[in-house]
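Entry 14. Ran structure prediction on the chain below.
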Amino acid sequence: MSAGDLLAIWRAHLADNRRRSPHTVRAYGDAAARLMAALGCADWADVARVEAHHLRAHLAARRAEGLGNASTARELSALKAFIAFARAQAGDPDPATPRLRGPRIKKGLPRPVTPDEAVNLTDMVDGLAGDGWIGARDRAVLLLMYGSGLRIAEALSLKGSDAMLGDVLLVTGKGGKQRAVPILPITRAAVAAYARSCPYPLPASEPLFRGAKGGPLSPAMVQRAMAQARRALGLPDTATPHALRHSFATHLLSAGADLRSLQELLGHASLGSTQIYTRVDAAALLENYRKAHPRG
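Output, structure tokens:
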């Protein structure tokens, strides 16, 4: 069995058994490939023998290439999972991962955009597109993120059968977990307008959102459209597609939504992931106070 075969089995395990997103499968697969190439691993037994000192040296080399703290922590996580899988494949009765701690990560607050900025961004991507149907497509994707709190991968996973949306959409998120999200009239209209203008057939079981040549739309194209729109509007680099999901959460919280409901809408596995938005809301209140108070 070649190294390529091992990596194919690893990626299939992540996608089929662990139900990881395509982005995670790609990142974890690339991390495993780098480790095997660096250490000359040829089979599961070789990977199973990787210990903490091997990982430490490998990650030090990656840091020397310019890898930051957050990326190093993610890579370590991916490699630990790969080694544990390899040890199980090699028949190790105790497939524990090497004991190695990653760098400390200072967890920053999400950077949402304001309601006006969100609307302006969705309109701007439409206006800047060279082709009308592409502008309608990008606007529909961003409205799904802002109006319903979808992740970009979740929006792009919709099928042709979703073109005529109702009041609620059933979304499959991380870990294969399903949740129901509300669909605003403006979002429903935007998706329908895109479907009508799209020059390609949209079969029920095929991707709803298409690239310029008819293939599935990639996240990179949405991110590029967003980058052009934020530059045109003079917004900071933090105004990314994912910032629209943050805005969905913080605006609901400001309007009185409770954390448990917000957790369900966002598809968070734990309440702790949702609680960060209480800090965002408090930070916004404090900023408004400082601007308005004469002694602020």
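The CA atoms of residues 160 and 204 lie 4 Å apart. Will compare against last week's run tomorrow.
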